[in-house]
Amino acid sequence: MRVPLSWLREYVDLPATETGRDVQAKLISAGLEVETVEQLGADLKGPLVVGQVLTIEELEGFKKPIRFCTVDVGTANGTGEPQEIVCGARNFAVGDKVVVVLPGAVLPGNFAIAARKTYGKTSHGMICSGDELGMGDDGSGGIIVLPPEIEVGTDAIELLQLVDEVLDIAVTPDRGYCLSLRGIAREAAIAYGLPLRDPALLDVPAPNAFGYPVQVGDPAGCDRFTARTVTGLDPEARSPIWLRRRLQKAGMRPISLAVDITNYVMLELGQPLHAYDRSRVQGAIGVRRAEQGEKLTTLDGVKRTLDAEDLVITDDRGPIGLAGVMGGANTEIDDTEGTTTEVVVEAAHFDAISIARTARRHKLASEASKRFERGVDPQAASAAAQRTVDLLVLLAGGTADAGVTEAIAPFAPHTITIPANHPDKVAGVDYGRETVVRRLQQVGCDVYGQDELIVTVPSWRPDLTDPNDLAEEVIRLEGYENLPSTLPKPPAGLGLTGRQRLHRRIGRALAGAGYVEALNYPFIGEHVFDQFGLAADDPKRKVVKLVNPLSDEEPALRTTLLPGLLGALRRNDGRGSHDLALFETGLVFHPQRELRVAGRLPVDRRPTDEEIASLTAALPFQPRHAAVVLAGAREQAGWWGKGRPADWADAVEAARILAREAGTELLVRSGQYGPWHPGRCAELAVLVDGTEKVIGYAGELHPGVLKTLGLAPRTCAMELDLDALEEASAGLPKGPKISTFPVATQDVALVVSREIPHADVEAALREGAGELLESIRLFDVYESEQLGEDKKSLAYALRFRATDRTLTVDEASAARDAAVALAAERTGAVLRGA
């Protein structure tokens, strides 16, 4: 919201010495986000005057049209003689009043003006456009042509209000009332302790039966609709300079008088309005939900297909506007034709959620929808309509029709009961009842009671719904900077939880292994499950959907980390980084079997264990996962060697790294799931209370998935459940016992069936070897016709060591033979060559 300081002063008598920076500081202290203060005309220096074009000579022989003009500037040039000026613009004629900058002046951008010879003539100044004066877009795109009644020689700096300060305020969603000069003025008046001249306090005639007919078919979507009619408008009337300049300073482009007035009143009171050309409206104006598939061409020229949830404005032909968002082209006031003499003014109040969803559904954000979805004062509709009618009568010579239409759904003021000392408990400051009542009255509340206050919330503050909201108003107006800073006193000796320590160890371990952490938004679209090839009944398809998502394309919370990581991988690959190894640890979200409503926790005391448990039970199940993705080279080529690409084994090794950090034995075996290649996918499992539990998968992704997602060939990934890994953990990993005695190494080569997993063979060898076994490593896999078509040879290096003696050859051989015997019993393994 852009707020010109000169406009703000109309409603609050700010001290004359107060600058925009001073007002900015006050509003920031009151809790508003004033981002910048723009100094308009700070580097502008006159003389800048109104002139009248006397003659125009067309200069020939140049690549573009050039005109040599003489302009009467009165006595501003010191001589009274016509000023000779060269100009290339074409949108003015002899007799027009224009803005002339004379030699010695400085325009915005430190552009000094001096007499200079150009196109064979000497130009003594410039005829100015709006852009050259820093006025912004006025819609003309050329020289400023002023109304004929303005006198020659008038100071154009004052006439065009070129010097001003504009506060640029970022209005948060809960402060919709601040999207108006009325709302900002109220905050400024409170901050300075000055009275407010409320522009909404107007004499409004009572509704009667003579107004334009209106039929509201959906009172829940539109609880108030005011219609006023103005006739006898001068179709040639144009917006005066002061109106156009205020719109420009507020960031809006002047269009036509009727539209400019509705925009002006919207900025002034915060109530969006719409003006219809009465001659183009057929029958009564209605408000209803659209029929599925109905068509409407909006003012931006786009033909839109409506949804059954869209709220529309209609006449006898059908939809003529998208309620609260944008009007329709078929009832537009067309300024180019200059034929509109009768206008119907609409000032309505629409449901905020409905308008927000419609604007998002059609990707059509407007100034009106921005206000409605944040909350508009329903009681301001009648005043806004009256203000619009008054300006149309004043500026366009119209006559206000006696008919006044108001369709109002029954409503009751919102009241809140609050203990008088509630803000004190929230803030930890002793404000006292008198201060609490005074501050609540300043924001517009009616307050009754002593120890227990009954507060009636003003209509322009729909964000005030409970006692904590009222407490926040008291605290912010008393000043956040006045709150005492008190450090919490947590009990000593707790430190990080086991889950937190594991999370940090895993991050350090993966970073040490060459992975780069990539943090992604926890939002996904359900189409990703189809891209991953997940079964229709896969648990990952059951998602928690957001009521108000940031993006309609990603309305759900993630059940897997891979979509975000693979998206980051694709973006980096597309920008030239082809050798990538990324990881992420974060929460995934699964809906609870029973949907519960979360209670609101107190803020004046510590919640009880039961209250916390009740809140937790209403939240989605949120396990912590870890995932990695790899593409390109895992080891770079160079003078030291060829390097190698990342493959499925690297993804499996990443899972082993996590298991080692958790102090858990990871079971790795062949698997098949979702986006992974069916022949290059490892299933990851752990033992929990003696039962195997699958916690994730690792390997190379399916070629079809890679093609669908636009990823590099042979991309690999791993994802597992960290909480399940921690559950299987024996606690913090213990350092190995270092033996001073030598190691005894025994190699065995076992021939097994090709379908037997290496993990099963290794598990049998490890168990059979007993406590003397220090480590086991598979160093060769061999297949040949000599072994048989369905056979393979697995070669293992077994390391034996005792902590208290040097092992003999017989002891090491006996341990090896015991390991081979158990492997033969469980897997049918046979010593190769035996």
UniProtKB/TrEMBL annotation:
Residues 411-485 form the B5 domain. Mg(2+) binds at residues 463, 469, 472-473. It is found in: Cytoplasm. The keyword Metal-binding applies. Its cofactor is Mg(2+). Pfam families: B3_4 (PF03483), B5 (PF03484), FDX-ACB (PF03147), tRNA_bind (PF01588), tRNA_synthFbeta (PF17759). Signal peptide: none annotated. Keywords: Aminoacyl-tRNA synthetase, ATP-binding, Cytoplasm, Ligase, Magnesium, Metal-binding, Nucleotide-binding, Protein biosynthesis, RNA-binding, tRNA-binding. Its EC number is 6.1.1.20. Residues 42-157 form the TRNA-binding domain. It is an enzyme of class 6 (ligase). Residues 739-832 form the FDX-ACB domain. GO terms for molecular function: ligase activity. Binds 2 magnesium ions per tetramer. The keyword Plastid does not apply. It comes from the Bacteria. It catalyses: tRNA(Phe) + L-phenylalanine + ATP = L-phenylalanyl-tRNA(Phe) + AMP + diphosphate + H(+). InterPro entries: aa-tRNA-synth_II/BPL/LPL (IPR045864), B3/B4_tRNA-bd (IPR005146), DNA-bd_dom_put_sf (IPR009061), Fdx_antiC-bd (IPR005121), Fdx_antiC-bd_sf (IPR036690), NA-bd_OB-fold (IPR012340), Phe-tRNA-ligase_IIc_bsu (IPR045060), Phe-tRNA-ligase_IIc_bsu_bact (IPR004532). Belongs to the phenylalanyl-tRNA synthetase beta subunit family. Type 1 subfamily. Tetramer of two alpha and two beta subunits. HAMAP family: Phe_tRNA_synth_beta1. This is Phenylalanine--tRNA ligase beta subunit. The lineage of its organism: Bacteria, Bacillati, Actinomycetota, Actinomycetes, Kitasatosporales.
